[in-house]
Amino acid sequence: MPLPETLIEGGVNSVGIKRGQPIERPIVNKRKVIVLGKTPDGAGISISSTLAGAPSKRYQAMTTFDDRERAFEKKFVIDEELKFKIEARRDQAVGEWAAAQLGLSGAAAKDYVRAVRNEGVIHKGEGVFQKVRRDFLAAGVAVSDGQLREIMAQYMTLSTRDVQRAEGITSP
Predict the structure, then answer these.
(1) Beta bridge partners of residue 100, listed in sequence order
(2) Are 101 and 151 in contact (CB under 8 A)?
(3) Using CA atoms, how far apart are residues 40 and 8, in angstroms rounded to an integer?
């Protein structure tokens, strides 16, 4: 990345650049990058960093920030994967329970459970609720919305415990 044209070298250095000569890119002298100059407000700049060594103190804070950012992104991905696994297990259990309530068995029950799980992936938890509710109304199964939500919450708790145990996570 080229440096701004306003960065002007402030004196003769070990590389031989003269006062007032614009610096368009950092000067590399063996193992060090040297940039001497002035900013538009007149403040002096002197940056020197060893290419093969550890980053200078000026850049360590940014490295720490970048490391924290990467750690948070990684944690977010892991948390989302766990959430997906928990919801998928919950949807599987709700589908099996609903299939039993509807009197389905064998291949019909497996197909119904698959349809409930797909609904959970596409529309999250509310999609599962709506599908099961529609199917219960069509079949005449007497389960209220509150009861269905309570069953889903219970299966969510069980699924969370099962996935945490399978992943080796201890709950707080």
Answers:
(1) none
(2) no
(3) 9
Helices (H), the chain: 57-102, 107-139, 145-167
Dihedral pair phi/psi, residue 121, rounded to 5°: -70, -40
What tokens does 160 get? 């969370």
Closest CA to 8 of 38, 47, 34: 38
Give pLDDT < 70 ranges for the chain: 1-62, 125, 171-172
For residue 101, give both structure tokens: 């309530």
Task: Return the bridge partners of 50, or none.
Answer: 32
- Which fold, 72-167? Major Prion Protein (1.10.790)
Q: What is the pLDDT of residues 12-56, one digit of tens each?
A: 444 555 555 555 555 555 555 445 555 555 555 544 444 445 555
State how far the Cα of 91 lies from the Cα of 93, in Å rounded to an integer.
5
Residue with tokens 């002197």: 46
Residues 6+ apart with CB under 8 A from 35: 3, 7, 23, 26, 27, 45, 46, 47
- Indicate the domain borders of the chain: 1-53, 72-167
